[in-house]
Design goal:
By secondary structure, the protein is of the alpha/beta class. It has helices spanning 13-24, 59-70, 83-91, 93-97, 107-114, 116-125, 185-192, 246-258, 291-297, 301-309, 329-341, 352-365, 378-392; strands at 5-9, 28-33, 48-51, 75-78, 133-135, 146-149, 175-176, 197-200, 206-214, 217-231, 234-243, 263-271, 278-284, 325-327, 408-409. Strand 9 and strand 10 (217-231) form a beta hairpin. Helix 11 runs antiparallel to helix 12.
Length: 412
């Protein structure tokens, strides 16, 4: 085998963006997932696929499966797509580094990033705007506009002593608080799995600096303006647009330079509606969900990552096209449903007719999608069937349809 294979966890739209990009450049793609109906398995650009242990149930088994594949002579890179991926690669860095080039942060850096109290302290020291942040039990004023969110992006034995060394748990999600009403401490702690933090609510649009770094040196960047999330109050983006915002570049790189960053990263900000300042939300130390948006605009982060993994020089474009919009279609539907179903105490929903028009006209003007592709329809079809299975409990037929490969289970 020639050394032209990459391992891609098949768990998010960014997985498919990596697979399509790299396969089109002659790289052999190996998709891995705990779900045998992962949409990426059905892509014409997926050369091999494997069913591996679910990291939520057997994290060590999942890390071992990645490592066993990484040891193949043809494999040169693993793309970190979700928290479990980058945690496994960083936690067991020495083992993985013997097989592939380590293009991800050290576990020490990752611990600092995943601890949102420490991250805010690092950002403030670097001169980056941050929201007022306090541990839950230290809050004495519940009259202001505030949110409760997990202190740690993931829960491991490094943060929570009750967990075993092989456990990785996702804590609860953000809670928007009714001003003047203190949330029930017990229910919040049980939902989050630890003492969460309370942050001031920052109104304004959300932006991100997407970047790839190599040992503290920037390789490429791109700017995102979030148009819509899963909820009208925000959340993961389902419609996003490339932008060129010099202030965003400056503040994002200031923070990444302070962290001596290495690997792919998305730095999330709110642009304060009152002050116009970029205020830090969090750092995603991996490839981001909307990776295809940057690719569509002319910045192919997956390919740059691949070249770095092979020790080759990277010459990214000096510019990219601003105003490119991409969509996650099922996410757009959930955005509209959130207007009907949710009642957020801090964020007013838009009028439904206006929101429907906004979504429809945006899709009409810029028909660029995370999954849907005329030339590669399999992932979109499989994704629709998976959603139907979740909603109506339909038993999927995993032996027919656009699937081209037989999944294999890796044993320890």
């Amino acid at each position: 085998m020639n050394e032209r294979s990459v391992i891609v966890p098949a768990v998010a739209p960014s997985s498919l963006a990596c697979i399509r990009s790299l396969s089109s450049r002659g790289v052999r793609t190996i998709a891995v997932s705990e779900n045998e109906t992962a949409p990426e398995f059905y892509s014409r650009y997926c050369d091999e696929n494997y069913v591996v242990p679910d990291p939520a149930e057997d994290f060590l088994g999942y890390a071992n499966a990645l490592l066993e594949l990484a040891k193949r002579n043809d494999v040169r890179a693993i793309t970190p797509i979700r928290e479990e991926d980058v945690w496994a690669l960083s936690k067991y860095r020495s083992e993985f580094a013997r097989a592939v080039t380590p293009l991800w942060p050290t576990v020490e850096t990752l611990r600092r990033v995943y601890d949102r109290v420490e991250l805010m302290e690092i950002a403030a020291a670097a001169g980056v705007g941050v929201p007022e942040t306090q541990p839950f039990d230290e809050v004495d004023d519940w009259s202001r506009k505030q949110i409760v969110k997990p202190r740690y992006a993931i829960l491991t034995a490094d943060y929570v002593s009750a967990l075993s060394p092989g456990e990785v748990v996702h804590p609860g999600s953000v809670r928007y608080l009714q001003p003047g009403s203190k949330p029930d401490r017990r229910s919040v702690f049980e939902e989050m799995g630890h003492e969460p933090i309370v942050q001031e609510y920052v109104p304004g649009p959300e932006y991100a600096l997407w970047a790839l770094y190599d040992d503290g040196d920037v390789v490429a960047t791109c700017h995102k303006h979030q148009l819509r999330g899963y909820s009208y109050a925000g959340n993961t983006s389902v419609a996003r647009q490339t932008a060129v915002v010099p202030e965003l570049e400056e503040v994002g790189r200031t923070l990444l330079d302070a962290l001596d960053w290495h690997g792919p990263v998305s730095v999330q900000f709110k642009r304060d509606a009152g002050t116009d300042e970029f205020v830090l939300l969090e750092i995603n130390p991996r490839f981001w969900v909307s990776l295809a948006c940057a690719h569509q605009a002319g910045i192919d982060f997956a390919y740059y990552y691949w070249r770095l993994a092979r020790g080759e020089s990277v010459r990214p474009r000096s510019d990219y096209e601003a105003g490119i919009t991409t969509h996650l279609l099922r996410g757009e539907l959930l955005y509209l449903l959130s207007i009907l179903r949710e009642n957020n105490p801090l964020v007013e929903p838009p009028p439904l007719p206006a929101a429907v028009w906004e979504v429809a006209s945006s899709i009409y003007r810029q028909p660029h999608f995370d999954y849907f592709s005329v030339t590669d329809p399999g992932p979109f079809v499989r994704d629709v069937l998976n959603v139907a299975n979740e909603v109506w409990s339909v038993t999927p037929d995993v032996t027919s349809g656009p699937r081209r490969k037989v999944s294999k289970t890796i044993s320890r």
